[in-house]
Specification:
Radius of gyration: 37 Å
Number of domains: 2
Order of helices and strands: HEHEHEHEEHHEHEH
CATH superfamily of the largest domain: 2-enoyl-CoA Hydratase, Chain A, domain 1
Largest sheet: 7 strands, mixed
CATH class of the largest domain: Alpha Beta
Number of helices: 8
CATH architecture of the largest domain: Alpha-Beta Complex
Number of strands: 7
Structural class: alpha/beta
Shape: rod-shaped
Helix content: 55-70%
């Protein structure tokens, strides 16, 4: 009887041990599952962070500064010129001989400050930088001169360039005013030299058109006079219209040649 009782106790103990082992195994499985979920969550979080970092990097790459594009908006004065030159200097030092683009949307301003920036741009060109200058809106007065500073010059189709005579305020004694007038004349000669060097306009034509008035020039006229190298941002409809009309003009030209 005792032998039989002992056997039942052993069976119960064995069953209890197996249950304990099963619970232990179940706990270990749950622990592994929890660790797996944790690792999956961490992996997903890392993936999201990597994706955000990539998107942030792409956004940074798309910024004007990352593409060495400077938008010169507002008047030309000592402050705006210094700000522009500081940024261009930074790009030139960090990336020697990189391409740089400056887009002007400016009414012009101070001649001496403008010439400072003009000379600075020439120094960058001489150091191997390709400088592209463009205009959206308008490039008037000194801004129109600065537009001529680039290796490549462009203008938006609805933009305008304005050229006029140099303007200075003169006061004081007669000889002081005469000196100021003489200085202004020399400045105007420099302006004429820049425009005639970069275009097919003669000094006489400029003098006729800017005498006692502002000479406003449309984008198409700028291209025709070679004040810019290209006109950008034309409406697609206008491009189609122009391309359709080309064959007719060619046929007319061919007829004239035959005659």
């Amino acid at each position: 009887m005792s032998e039989e009782k002992r056997t039942k106790e052993e069976v119960k103990a064995e069953i209890a041990a197996k249950l304990a082992e099963a619970k232990k195994t179940e706990a270990e499985i749950k622990k592994v599952e929890a660790e797996t979920r944790k690792m999956s969550a961490e992996a997903y979080k890392a993936e999201l962070e990597a994706e955000k970092a990539f998107e942030s990097q792409q956004r940074n790459k798309s910024k004007d500064e990352e593409n060495h594009l400077y938008r010169f908006s507002g008047g030309v004065d000592k402050s705006s010129v210094t700000k522009c030159m500081t940024k261009l200097t930074e790009w030139a030092r960090l990336t020697p001989k990189c391409d740089i683009e400056i887009i002007f949307a400016s009414p012009g301003g101070e001649i001496i400050s403008g010439f400072e920036l003009f000379d600075f741009i020439q120094s960058l060109r001489n150091r191997g930088h390709k400088i592209t200058t463009g205009s959206l809106g308008y490039a008037a007065s000194m801004a129109g001169i600065l537009l001529q500073a680039g290796d490549v010059r462009w203008i938006g189709h609805q933009s305008w360039m304005m050229i006029h005579r140099a303007a200075f305020g003169a006061h004081g004694k007669t000889f002081e005013i005469e000196d100021e007038v003489e200085f202004v004349k020399r400045i105007e000669e420099r302006i004429l030299d820049i425009f005639t060097t970069r275009s097919k306009i003669t000094k006489q034509k400029i003098k006729r058109n800017w005498d006692r008035k502002d000479w406003w020039i449309s984008a198409d006229e700028c291209a025709e006079l070679q004040l810019v190298d290209e006109v950008r941002a034309k409406m697609p409809e206008m491009k189609i219209k122009t391309s359709k009309s080309l064959p007719k003009r060619r046929r007319k030209s061919a007829r004239r040649k035959k005659q």
